[in-house]
Amino acid sequence: MTQSPTASSSEPKAHGHFLDSMQLPSGVTRIWLIRHAIVEATARLRVYGALDVDLCSEHLALQVPYYTALGQRLPADAQWVVSPLKRAQDTAKAIFAAGYGTRNLTIEPRFTEQSMGEWHNLPHEELPLKLRQTAHNFWSLSASEQPPGGESMLDVCARVGHALDELADRSEGQDSVVVSHGGAIRAAISHALSVHPDTALRFSIQNLSLSILERINGVWRVVTVNELPASVSQS
């Protein structure tokens, strides 16, 4: 497995922590966020949110080159963190099986997807009838809308932000891979940029995409968002 290139820690650090080369410097607290693979077809017809649904077996079989390319992009010595939902854990295991090699998985509930509460399992066409606020242009509901028995994106941003900060505290100067969900990754970006969730929801986070965050001197920055595996971008 080819490790993602990083610059030698002995190289001089540029003022401002500029990224002036093709390599990411080592010794930086860096979080590699991956959205899970596409879920099975019947689940995609309904609002599945934080429900535990399976990945699409057909896509899993066809997309092995994507998992291989993704694994080659990731650092070999990273710790791995996953949401408690099976689709995130199965995505991590597919990356392992495609050449990265098996690693221990730490389950972190705060990286799970937004809970839609009583709106779980609704057909997508019925959800607009339940909303009390105007839906976001690029999400099923506005950031402040809280489904009955569920959570708003404001809630998601709070829990994801706490999880990110704690992960960075525990793994200072190290790499961590987090396999999570589209809403949770947008929440992570919201936290890193200190922007309102409605703004972060404008980011596209596709299945199997990679987003990279760094925390330097206590300040988060965004390195990349929604980067697709090389095999996808070249196809």
TrEMBL record:
Any Pfam family: His_Phos_1
Record CDD domains: HP_PGM_like (cd07067)
Gene3D superfamilies in the cross-refs: Phosphoglycerate mutase-like
InterPro entries found in the cross-reference section: His_Pase_superF_clade-1 (IPR013078), His_PPase_superfam (IPR029033), PGM_Phosphatase (IPR050275)
Organism superkingdom: Bacteria
Alphabetized PANTHER family for the sequence: BROAD-SPECIFICITY PHOSPHATASE YOR283W-RELATED, HISTIDINE PHOSPHATASE FAMILY PROTEIN-RELATED
UniProt name for this protein: Alpha-ribazole-5'-phosphate phosphatase
